[in-house]
TrEMBL record:
UniProt key word Phosphoprotein: yes
Sections of the chain in a coiled coil: 19-64
The protein's name: Thioredoxin domain-containing protein 9
Keyword terms of this UniProt record: Coiled coil, Cytoplasm, Cytoskeleton, Nucleus, Phosphoprotein
GO cellular component, one term: centrosome
Subunit composition and interactions: Forms ternary complexes with the chaperonin TCP1 complex, spanning the cylindrical chaperonin cavity and contacting at least 2 subunits.
Subcellular location, principal: cytoplasm
Thioredoxin domain span: 78-162
Length: 225
């Protein structure tokens, strides 16, 4: 008898809670509907105009980037051109390469993909042997090196493959993540750790301090020259 009374009490309590929850949800839904009904045609038109203005601005920005050489990965002929390129664009990735260095070809492959994906950033390459003054000024001593230039100033370097897992088989996603860590591209992923997809177990990522880029001549990070 007591057990039946206890069950009935619990059932009534649950029914009461369900009714209260349903009532709260109904009130919230009614409030949202009322809010939508209060938006008149004039307000909807203003929202539409703001949306169109944002789209137009984004399209204009895209066209401006394309006119400045964004959207493609290309080689510039000399160090003189470098200064004009970084002056014209807010964010620039410059690959200092050498034709005989095998690992530069690996970098080329990934940057060609990222240039199309990240229109907000300019991707260029420069033969280090044609830019002795610039290489000395930026202390480029290891090939390949990526100079990451923001607002006309070199903000960071990616030297060899040290920051990319110390492997020739790093993915485009890993390089994209590393560029994102420097803020040179608009990266939407997790900056706290490199992407794991396609990364070999045990791969280690070690950031190389750019102060260690010193010495005479050019050291190749490639096993094949």
């Amino acid at each position: 008898m007591a057990a039946n009374q206890s069950v009935d009490l619990i059932t009534k309590v649950l029914e009461t809670q369900l009714l209260q929850s349903a009532k709260i949800m109904e009130e919230q839904l009614d409030a949202e509907i009322e809010k939508l009904e209060q938006i008149d045609e004039e307000e909807l038109e203003r929202l539409h105009e703001r949306r169109l203005a944002a789209l137009k601005k984004a399209q204009q920005q895209k066209q401006e980037w394309l006119s400045k050489g964004h959207g493609e990965y290309r080689e510039i002929p000399s160090e003189k051109d470098f200064f004009q390129e970084v002056k014209d664009s807010k964010s620039v990735v410059c690959h200092f390469h050498r034709e005989s260095t095998f690992r530069c070809k690996i970098i080329d492959k990934h940057l060609a993909i990222l240039a199309k994906k990240h229109l907000e950033t300019k991707f260029i390459k420069l033969n280090v042997e044609k830019a002795p003054f610039l290489a000395e000024r930026l202390r480029i001593k290891v090939i390949p090196t990526l100079a990451l230039v923001k607002d006309g100033k070199t903000k960071d370097y990616i030297v060899g493959f040290t920051d990319l897992g110390n492997t020739d088989e790093f993915t485009t996603d890993v390089l994209e993540w590393r560029l994102g860590c420097s803020g040179i591209i608009n990266y939407s992923g997790n900056l706290m750790e490199p992407p794991s997809q396609g990364t070999k177990p045990g791969t280690k990522f070690t950031k190389l301090d750019k102060k260690t880029i010193r010495g005479k001549g050019y050291d190749s990070d490639s096993d094949e020259d």
